[in-house]
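Database export, one record per block. Field names are fixed; values are copied verbatim from the stored entry.
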Amino acid sequence: MAQEPGAEPLVRRSEETSRGSTELSDLATLKALAQPRRQRMLQHLTVHGPATSATLARALGLNTGATSYHLRELARYGFVEEVDRPAEAGGHGRERWWRAVPGDRRFPPRSRQSAEMRLVMDELNHHAYAADLELFEQMQVQRQLRTRGVDGEVGEADPWVDAFPYSRGSIRLTLPELRAFFEEYIALLNRYKRPEADTPPGARTVLTRFLAFPAPDAATGTVPDAAPENRPAPHDRPGSEPS
């Protein structure tokens, strides 16, 4: 986590769990993460890799000065960090390059959230879900264009057009079982985590999203407030290495 000299971590080390995850229970940290522009910037850094504030500003239609400010705030709370200029970038510019800091960051369960924290979490989730759906739809359109030739004929095959696994299902679980199920999912992601140096040619960043919720009660039609105790923060991937 990027820190000013002599400053105490904004996410306290005591909040780290035995699994190596960090619980984001500090309200200021959550507010910093919930800012919509910062969410967009984090998504861009996660999908496209390191970038400068100018690159982000052009890609997202933002003001360069504002982008620099948001990057500094994200760095202050440990969500991004400065990196060396990528070799493939070329040139000898003095721009500051930033990357999203990977990690297994969790939110406290709703039962432990204050009223103000719940408002912040609701806003954060609203923007995160909308951004995920928008990006997924964009990729679906790109897939259609890549496989469609002239006059609607099927174009040249792209092996990544099949890279959209999708599953819908239902299982009957107790709340402890649901929490265990979630941890097994995180463990599965960690199995496929590896350093950039060990990533084979042809590999691409694959975005994964886990969503589970209780079905409406058959008698009342209401949905109980019972979600997994800990959820990964948007744009964060479990473990310490980027995938």
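Remark 1: The two ends are 19 Å apart (CA to CA).
Remark 2: Residues 115-146 form the longest helix (32 residues).
End of record.
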